[in-house]
């Protein structure tokens, strides 16, 4: 009835779930340990469409196997170092990393948690907070509501910590190495732990969080979510984002936040009736490790391997600090507009190494006209870059960036020929 009222074809949701399951199963089969498996892309599609329960079971078995492998590696390392454990390694707990379970929770909830949004807005209203004096305002809330004193300490006193809260002394200490926006964020994070415990516990009770470690991590991630909602209150931030056409740097100046904080906040604007552009976000390091991912646009991110080398976020490292734009198309024909930029920080003095990551933020092409960075681009006929999820599941055999053979077709080699890609058989698979 809802589908009829909203004029939505329910089959679209079914297809999307099937596609996502097929993509994940293909990535599982891309593991080098399974490279002898004679399974084609069409076989996976048929399985996920006709036997989705069996497909999910196979993915679950793979996760358990990976967990057992990681447990064995940990045990070998402990034995080699002569170390001891507090008890046996739990194979059931190792089957899924807490970070994976929390990421899945965020994805299921579309990275929007309305109780925390409302609480953050209420904090502004009740305490009459001001943007230009938010640090002082939050310090006042901590003192008045929770009897907590805030102070900034020198790096030597902190001993490597950025934030320390002493519940007995009611003392919140922040490191001097934190920039002002980070200090304010840490105060808002602490306010979530002190004042939003019931809301955090209710969300963290999600059955998808199978261990105490997962639930604890979820509470920490949700406290960060609340921190972002306090620094950038929903209504005011959405209004500014739309008015400035999602100018990331301008929004950062207005709300006194970092580039990463703005990008992350934009992915949370999913309030029914007051939605922003549905963005996806990915954060990666120079080695290609993905430390943060969220897909509000429908793009697929790899779960068990590195991503496509042609992603804009990877190219960002070639031009540090500069925003790069890209029009891209996935093998299935989905088109995206993305921006990417490096971010860096040094948590200490000169002797501390600089930490560099790249942030990628993107949306489907049909939303790109609302984003200032798309100005001047021909969104219909402009240069569009073919990308994929990763090499092993990508159907584009002739890609010069290909690092591994594709599972989508048999590997045919001729020692008398050499194409751009070593694994190109000359029989390109179609886009669909």
Helix and strand layout, with pairings?
Layout: H1 2-6, H2 10-29, H3 41-50, H4 52-81, H5 91-94, H6 98-108, H7 114-127, H8 134-146, E1 149-153, H9 155-158, E2 163-166, E3 171-175, H10 180-195, H11 197-204, H12 212-231, H13 234-243, H14 248-255, H15 259-266, E4 270-271, E5 274-275, E6 280-285, E7 290-295, H16 312-315, E8 324-329, E9 335-345, E10 355-364, E11 385-386
Parallel strand pairs: 1-3, 8-11
Antiparallel strand pairs: 2-3, 4-5, 6-7, 6-10, 8-9, 9-10
Describe this structure in words.
With 432 residues, the protein is α+β, with helices and mostly antiparallel strands. 43% of the residues lie in helices and 14% in strands. The chain contains 16 helices and 11 strands. The chain has helices at residues 2-6, 10-29, 41-50, 52-81, 91-94, 98-108, 114-127, 134-146, 155-158, 180-195, 197-204, 212-231, 234-243, 248-255, 259-266, 312-315, and strands at residues 149-153, 163-166, 171-175, 270-271, 274-275, 280-285, 290-295, 324-329, 335-345, 355-364, 385-386. The strands form 3 sheets. The chain has a 6-stranded mixed beta sheet. α2 (10-29) packs across α3, α11 (197-204) packs across α12 and α14 (248-255) crosses α15 (259-266). The longest helix has 30 residues, at 52-81. The model is unreliable at 83-94 (pLDDT under 50).
